[in-house]
Amino acid sequence: MNCKLIVQENNTTGQVSADIITMRIQLYLYFKKIVPELALMTSTNRDLLLPSNTRGLKPPIFFDMDAEVYITDILEIESYLDKIPPNLTDSQTFEDVAPNIYSRFLVYAVKPTESILKSIEKEICAVETQLKKSGGPFLGGSEPCRADCILFPKLFHIERFFFFTGIEDIISSDKYPNVYQYYQMIYNLPNTEHIKSDRNSLVEFFKMKGVNPKKISNEMFMNIDILK
Fold first, then answer.
1. Strand, coil or helix: what is 54?
2. Strand pairing partners for 141?
3. Are 149 and 31 in contact (CB under 8 A)?
4. How far is 32 from 50, CA to CA, in rounded Å?
5. GO molecular function terms here (predicted)?
6. pTM (2 decimals)?
7. Which pLDDT band, with edges at 50, 70 and 90, does 217 fall under?
8. Pairing mode, if any, of strands 61-64 and 69-71?
9. Whether the Cβ atoms of residue 197 and residue 27 lie closer than 8 Å to each other
10. Are residues 98 and 32 in the same domain?
11. What is the dihedral of CA 62, 66, 67, 73, to 10 degrees?
12. 106, exposed or middle or buried, with CB in 10 Å at 0-12, 13-18, 19+?
């Protein structure tokens, strides 16, 4: 399949935007064994990347170059890709696992309280329970599903934030052994470096969400290895 994924460029770092939707699409394509051409969109090259009748679309945008089809809605992109083998495991049952984990994390990142932290930990416990139930290594069992593509980017942002700020080891191997193995397994999948947001882009993303820059300054970030 000849395709292109048009993503927003981070204005500060010049890298792919660190938003979880872009990461979700990239992970979905990875599990579908589709390797797209990656194009970074800026305010200056939008007209070069998109024909005039599609310039109102916002990235991330999936472009099927063979069919000349542009799609921007995440659910429509996934539905379009579902027609192409290999098929991912049905995930409807698992997509409700930890549904509030990311919204609570964003609140905590801006204004941390013990009660919000406990609510985040409760959501992680739900993931732990599901992985025990399925037997892993994925949410639905032995094969990846859309729910994994939805959940992992959220866990990635959460784990990186807590690691960078040194608040605590939020996905502890002692406390959440199955979640820890799940996270490490997807994090270390081969040929996925382009999917995981670079360090500076993550910092800029957190700042954009209202996080105090003193918590995660670029200088602090650069002194931390991206892998534990």
1. helix
2. 138
3. yes
4. 25
5. chloride channel activity; transferase activity
6. 0.91
7. low
8. antiparallel
9. no
10. no
11. -10
12. middle
Q: Hey, is 17 helix, strand or coil?
A: coil
Is the link from the previous residue into 99 a cis peptide, with omega within 30 of 0? no
pLDDT confidence bin for 101, thresholds 50/70/90: very high
What 3-state class would DSSP assign to 68? Answer: coil
Cα distance between residue 93 and residue 74, in whole Å = 19
Nearest residue to 200 via CA among 7, 10, 1, 56: 10
DSSP 35: -
Chain segment 127-175, per-residue pLDDT in tens: 999 999 999 999 999 999 999 999 999 999 999 999 988 888 999 999 9
Q: How many other C-beta atoms can be found within 10 angstroms of the C-beta atom of residue 88?
A: 21
In-domain check, residue 226: no
Torsion 76-79-84-85 (CA) sign? positive
Residue 225 lies in a domain: no
